[in-house]
Amino acid sequence: MTATVRFVGSGDSFGSGGRFQTCILADAAGTRFTMDFGTSSMIALRQQGIDPNSIDVILLTHLHGDHCGGVPFLLMDAMLGSKRDRPLTVAGPRDLRYRMFLIAEALFPGMHVMKPKFPLDWIELEPGEPTQVGDILVTARSVKHTWQTNPTALRAEIGGKVICYTGDGEFGEEMALAAKGADLLVSECYFYEKPVRWHLNYPDLVAHKADFGAKRIILTHMSREMLAHADEVPEECAYDGMVVRI
To answer: What is the tally of structural domains in the chain?
Structure first.
């Protein structure tokens, strides 16, 4: 069975290269889900002609705004704009529901009084424990990033396909476990030469490509410095609107 992956947003937190923040949209076995949903994701979806109400599941790697900040905007649209009536599940790291409540209240004070008229489920993923999220078997692995964000890499198994996204973080054994044997590894590749703590940079990726053991790797979340070299590296590099099939 074929799965389709679209890079709705492939950028970093600063809009390097004019790219939207992280939003990786996958269609597999009749389920549509995203891996992360950055603050600009609603704009990116609309620009690419994708109905946010068509998304069944949102999986979040960690709680930085460029990876999760679009969720309150989606919920506001679902309740007020597009009148969503189909279920939505949001799954992510520890303290997900409470932290997203705080983010939503900061962006839309008073939002807590609104009650969705569609089924809305929140699932907190315990690192190392496979969790069934609808039709997707999701395994989160703790990674080395800003600890306050409860950072993880995510492995999603559905329809006989395995998609992994590193999220943000330095290379480590847990990240490699998440990617082992994946049909597609979407890997952060922040800087080309400059070493940046708590991020996966190009030299680290090259050094540890065999440790990941993924069948296909696509680089994303690139800084301006990395984007300047994207056409020079042999690896596939994501861009907004890019669609691949696995």
So the answer is: 1
Q: Residue 89: inside a domain, yes or no? A: yes
Which tokens sit at 174? 């847990």
The dihedrals phi and psi of 56, each to the nearest 5 degrees, come to -90, -40
Q: What is the pLDDT along the chain (246 residues), one digit of tens a residue?
A: 899 999 999 999 999 999 999 999 999 999 999 999 999 999 999 999 999 999 999 999 999 999 999 999 999 999 999 999 999 999 999 999 999 999 999 999 999 999 999 999 999 999 999 999 999 999 999 999 999 999 999 999 999 999 999 999 999 999 999 999 999 999 999 999 988 999 999 999 999 999 999 999 999 999 999 999 999 999 999 999 999 999
Q: Which domain holds residue 54?
A: 4-238
| Dihedrals phi, psi of 138, to nearest 5 degrees | -110, 130
Type of residue found at 36: D
CATH of the domain at 29: 3.60.15.10
What b/e sequence results for 10-29 when a residue is b if at least 16 CB atoms lie within 10 Å of its CB, and e otherwise? Answer: bbbbeebbebbbbbbbbbbe
Q: 136-142 and 131-133 as β-strands: parallel, antiparallel, unpaired? A: antiparallel
Q: Is position 245 within any domain?
A: no
Is position 84 within any domain?
yes
In a domain, 243, yes or no: no
Q: What is the pTM of this model?
A: 0.98
- Please tell me the distance from the alpha carbon of residue 95 to that of residue 97, in angstroms, as a whole number: 6
What are the helix (H) ranges across the chain?
41-47, 65-68, 71-76, 96-107, 173-179, 202-212, 224-227
Q: How far apart are CA 94 and CA 204, in angstroms?
A: 27
